[in-house]
Write a sequence for this structure.
């Protein structure tokens, strides 16, 4: 009997995609395949409307009042690069944390290596959360950016970003939130969070295709573009347009990707309450079940409301790579390793071993969780 395929790697990319996403991608490549915003014919206009609809759908997920404050990017990493490099100038100081993904840390580390910025990296408290008061204490006269993850991609710990946002607003310092593990799986309101920049991938909680993502940019904040080039507007000028979103979107947009992203964002918005509750319930079953298995060490907050849909663990004396490989042979897709977050693993004491990350999605079932738990128990018996 063939083992049932169980997908628990949604923190890397969501699966399965809703049927509406697949249909939208196909329609963009067949029904109105053209370059959006570059021509005046019917197909181009339909393509432009599809891109606008995607922008509006993402803005609705963010509770952003102006959809033109959403700039599309190649992915979440590209959006984070735009945010960080678009804000910072020589001599600026940045406050960030050891919990960040390399999409943030490597950008900052390179600027630090070139002696372009000063950098303070905050350690989490023993419970895995950043203390907002530590952020406040780290601010300097030349602090130009605060960069924090919304939820750790290793432990799933949801950070106190609203409290950090209030500190940022009071200090007049832009706050950048990395929403890679949150947007589409829980309510996000950029106004309530007092954030100036919110970066997101399109292929995770928003359920869109890979190669999509974007950045919310506060209306009062202007960034230096990452790249210049053709935008389909102000073509008479050799200078990059000042208007949003063209200022940040040089070159042909990924129309099939954006069409799928728009469909995924609309699906996530319409079903957000159900997705949120389902993911919380199955994550709790995952956390509780792993905690009950002797020989398993779990890395996730104990409080249900403090967890995104991620639980990392190690089993017995196996490395995370060995455990993930075993589970794959059992038909269960998880991820072993460091998950591009070395600071989080230094905090957990797992930098050498890594951790097995199981991450739930909008269609994860209790049966999926039970299959993983049985496989972990079997793995411990056999290794």
């Amino acid at each position: 009997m063939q083992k049932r395929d169980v997908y628990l790697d949604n923190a890397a990319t969501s699966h399965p995609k809703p049927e509406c996403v697949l249909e939208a991608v196909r329609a963009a490549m067949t029904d109105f395949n053209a370059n959006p915003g570059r021509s005046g014919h019917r197909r181009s206009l339909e393509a432009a409307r599809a891109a606008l609809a995607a922008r509006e759908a993402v803005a609705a997920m963010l509770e952003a009042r102006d959809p033109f404050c959403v700039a599309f990017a190649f992915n979440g990493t590209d959006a984070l690069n735009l945010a960080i490099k678009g804000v910072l100038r020589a001599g600026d100081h940045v406050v960030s944390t050891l919990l960040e993904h390399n999409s943030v840390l490597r950008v900052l580390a390179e600027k630090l290596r070139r002696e372009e910025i000063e950098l303070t990296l905050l350690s989490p408290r023993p419970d895995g959360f950043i203390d907002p008061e530590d952020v406040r204490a780290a601010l300097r006269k030349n602090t130009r950016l605060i960069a924090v993850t919304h939820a750790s991609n290793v432990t799933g710990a949801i950070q106190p970003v609203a409290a950090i946002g209030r500190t940022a607003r009071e200090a007049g310092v832009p706050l950048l939130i990395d929403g890679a593990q949150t947007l589409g799986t829980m309510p996000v309101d950029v106004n309530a969070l007092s954030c100036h920049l919110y970066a997101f991938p399109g292929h995770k909680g928003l359920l869109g295709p890979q190669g999509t993502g974007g950045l919310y940019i506060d209306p009062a904040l202007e960034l230096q573009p990452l790249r210049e080039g053709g935008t389909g507007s102000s073509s008479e000028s050799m200078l990059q347009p000042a208007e949003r979103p063209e200022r940040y979107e040089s070159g042909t947009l990924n129309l099939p990707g954006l069409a799928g992203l728009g469909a995924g964002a609309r699906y996530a918005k319409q079903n957000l309450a159900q997705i949120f509750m389902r993911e919380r319930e199955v994550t709790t079953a995952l956390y509780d079940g792993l905690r009950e298995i002797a020989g398993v060490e779990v890395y996730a907050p104990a409080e249900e409301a403090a967890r995104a849909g991620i639980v990392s663990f190690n089993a017995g004396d196996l490395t995370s790579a060995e455990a993930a490989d075993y589970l794959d042979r059992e038909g269960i897709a998880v991820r072993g390793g460091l998950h591009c977050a070395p600071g989080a693993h230094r905090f957990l004491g797992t930098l050498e071993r890594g951790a097995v990350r199981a991450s739930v999605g909008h269609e994860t079932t209790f049966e999926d969780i039970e299959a993983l738990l049985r496989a972990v128990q079997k793995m411990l018996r056999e290794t």
